[in-house]
Amino acid sequence: MEALLEILKELHPEVDFETCDTLIDDKILDSFDIVTIISEINTEYDVAIPAEEIIPENFNSAEALYDLIERLQDED
Amino acid sequence: MLFTSYNFIAFLIVIFLLYYLVPKKFQWVLLLAGSYFFYACAGIHFLAYIFATTVTTWWAAKRMTAIQQEQAAYLKVHKAELDREQKKAYKAGMKKRTRHWMLACLLFNLGILAVIKYTDFMISNINSIFHTGFTFMNFALPMGISFYTFQSMGYLIDVYRAKYPCQDSLPKFALFVSFFPQLVQGPISRYDALSQTLYEEHSLDWNNIRFGLQRILWGFFKKLLVADRLVVAVKALVGSPEEYTGAYVVLAVFFYAIQLYADFTGGIDITIGIAEVFGIRVTENFIRPYFSKNINEYWTRWHITMGTWFKDYIFYPISVCGWMLKLSKWSREKLGKEAGKRVPVYLANIVVWFTTGLWHGASWNFIVWGMLNCVVTLVSYELEPLYARFHEKVPAASGRWYDGFQAIRTFWIMGFIRILDCYRDVPLTFHQVGTVFTTGNWGSMFTGISALGLGAADYGVILFGAVMMFLVSLKGRSGSVRKQLAEKSVPVQVIVWFLLFFSILILGAYGVGYDSNQFIYNQF
Hints:
The complex is a heterodimer. Chain A is an all-alpha fold. Chain A has a single domain, classed as Non-ribosomal Peptide Synthetase Peptidyl Carrier Protein, Chain A. Helices cover 57% and strands 0% of the residues of chain A. Chain B folds into three domains: 199 residues, no CATH class; 163 residues, no CATH class; 132 residues, no CATH class. Classes of the chains: A mainly alpha, B mainly alpha. At the A-B interface, helix 2 of A face helix 11, helix 12 and helix 13 of B.
């Protein structure tokens, strides 16, 4: 989780990713951010997030995103 | 049948009466019959195209859902016997089978679109590069082909991604593809959103009818008062480029921005209003786009359903696919972290804007239009840290006046890019825009404006219409304008209704020289 928070913080230092759960709903993350995050996650966790998983529920909070990473790692 | 024609209004009244007279379980059947009748009016032979897309997409989706169900059933039964690797291999095999159906259907339907829409463009390029003399095919473009193909392909990809199961009924799916209000210029609806109300049984609801009719009237107001008047001046300005240079190009940019807004949003208002009268909810396609503070925001407010279509089905799949992630990783190692981070964003953005341009039309004007949007988008992306530093240093650069400045800046940037729609070719467009900086004819513009085919009364009506559109947009910031109106007293509501109705009747552009114009987006 620490590494993920670092990735997110680097993009938006002004956001409290530990508590925010409206990253997509409040348009904090845009499509460019999402692609950057996915690319960083791929490097950091060796997990490829497919396009069909790019839905608000998976990207609205750091926690949801971390759950997604764990689920995809599990499926691998 | 144009939305603004008497035939269409008569057709709409008949469908409306029948819709609430037939047993409710046949309402969707009536809409299907009406949609196919509406489509046949554009040319009976075009039905073959829409029917081919409907049947192939419906069948491929059915096959994919069957494979997905087979997979779920098999894994349920054999869960205990299979180890992790075996499960993974089984899933991969099933995914491959669904992918074959998806790709075959995608290729077939995009192939039809490509052949019909782009063959002559290809021939023209080949002829000009290789000095050959291939004759043009002159295929007639079936009405709304770009819209219904993209809508169907969105459904196909969603079923492939198992976002929802397929629609079992072919006639019901045919209605989703051909639903007449949105067939000619969108919005490009998503199946999971539209199907919620499309097949439902609807009782006569005064609120739906009142709100729907208001929306239809508002669409007619924009189209007939503003768009169909301004088109005369825009055509004059871009039709004689030698005569209308410099300041007139700025005028053309300004007029076309208002014309296109009135035309396209007016058409969508009519679409959404008609659907609402039937109790059907169609996705909004515009949210006050000219209030956008930057180009990224603009594209989340203008032609929203097209933007999200390209984002979900082209931008994301390209930017997160296996080879792109590998390329990104490689770039990080070779070029550094910052450059590596940009690789997927840049490449996917280029592909998206190229295809967006091509989707709009088979011409270099649209391709260059797309690429200019791409450049501005990426430049804004790169300038973000600079803007952040600027705002840190100059905190006064904020608030309403700064928002207004940003909105005006975005309006003009988009306006100058958009003028590529109007001029004959790309070099001429660039030449004309260049004259803005070289021709000092600002003084003559104020006298020349009267020679563009519009009189003082026309400009008065346009100004009235534009001010009304602006005020309604302002009001819309605090919620639905129609809901706000519904909360007013009955006399106020009646006065607004009458004013709207009679301004269309009296001030609409009819008669000689004002033949009701095709909506601009019909041609896409």
